[in-house]
Amino acid sequence: MLGVAGFVLRGARRGAMTAKRANKNFYKGRGAKSTGFISRKGTFIPDPYKRVHFVVPNLEGCEMKPYVSYKAPLTIGKVPTMEDILKK
Q: Given a cut of 80, is residue 22 above it in pLDDT?
């Protein structure tokens, strides 16, 4: 017999687990987080605590731009903080 090598080769033949190779209850999904649940009546109930919230600061009057040019000088040494940038 092939022993361990035969076991490894047999497993390699199976390939990836897909919905076509599994039973009717298999659902692989995409790794996304649930933002609610399905009720007994079949309707989706969103949970506000599971929703993604982006905290964006107020940028009115800010002179900084979102793009940094490749021609900008290289900063070596201490990394500037927000206070250092705003003092200039």
A: yes
